[in-house]
Amino acid sequence: DADVTQTPRNRITKTGKRIMLECSQTKGHDRMYWYRQDPGLGLRLIYYSFDVKDINKGEISDGYSVSRQAQAKFSLSLESAIPNQTALYFCATSGRDFYYNEQFFGPGTRLTVL
Amino acid sequence: AQSVAQPEDQVNVAEGNPLTVKCTYSVSGNPYLFWYVQYPNRGLQFLLKYITGDNLVKGSYGFEAEFNKSQTSFHLKKPSALVSDSALYFCAVRDNIGQNFVFGPGTRLSVLP
């Protein structure tokens, strides 16, 4: 089974709808991240969490919110989706010695907002 | 502030030839450098990292990368490219001051048979 899973894998929605993307991990990592990927822009950090009680905004948090329900679960919500939030979304995790440790990524969620 | 540049959007190479994917970086503290690969419809996979020590780092699938502090570069290399190496490659950096990774825009590698 995959260490980092994301649901759904694909989602098409309409402008103004509320959307939740979910991420679960079995790696036992404290740190979890949400990124979005757009062509030519690489990955940009939306939110990150270093433990259940620690949530931080990333580079592009406007229009998004998150919830860390447990060490293993980190959800991303779009309260009112807009077309420019159409992108590929990735969840990632990393271990506690975070300067040295690489991140582990989920398979991604492709979101289309019409 | 941290930043990463990958000056080439696309790199084409013939199978069997050596390949290089370029990365330059800017950080305030000591750099920790990473390469990831993304295959179609997949998440990013870790290839290799430089933390300290030897400037030549060996990683997965026969890839290696050379850290050059004076040129602030961390180029990804492979002596003999395979068609299956065709993918999107990302360079990432973090330093001992910032909290998170910064990713480059990605370089699409195409290995032609």
**Count of DSSP E strands of chain B?**
12
Question: What is the share of helical residues of chain B?
Answer: under 10%
Distance between the termini of chain A: 33 Å
Low-confidence stretches of chain A: none
Number of helices in the DSSP assignment of chain A: 0
Radius of gyration of chain B: 13 Å
What is the N-to-C succession of helices and strands of chain A? EEEEEEEEEEE
Strand content of chain B: over 45%
Question: What structural category do the secondary elements of chain A indicate?
Answer: mainly beta
Largest sheet of chain B: 6 strands, mixed
Strand content of chain A: over 45%
SSE-based structural type of chain B: mainly beta
Give an account of the 3D structure:
The complex is a heterodimer of chains A (114) and B (113). Chain A is mainly β. Chain A is built from no helices and 11 strands. Chain A is globular and about 40 Å long. The mean pLDDT of chain B is 92. Chain B has strands spanning 3-5, 10-14, 19-21, 24-26, 31-38, 44-50, 56-58, 64-68, 73-78, 87-95, 102-103, 107-112. Chain B has no helices and 12 strands. Helices cover 0% and strands 53% of the residues of chain B. Chain B is an all-beta fold. In chain B, strand 8 (64-68) and strand 9 form a beta hairpin. The A-B interface holds A 4, 33, 35, 40-45, 48, 56, 58, 90, 92, 99-100, 102-108 and B 4, 9, 32, 34, 36, 41-46, 49, 51, 90, 94, 96, 99-101, 103-106.
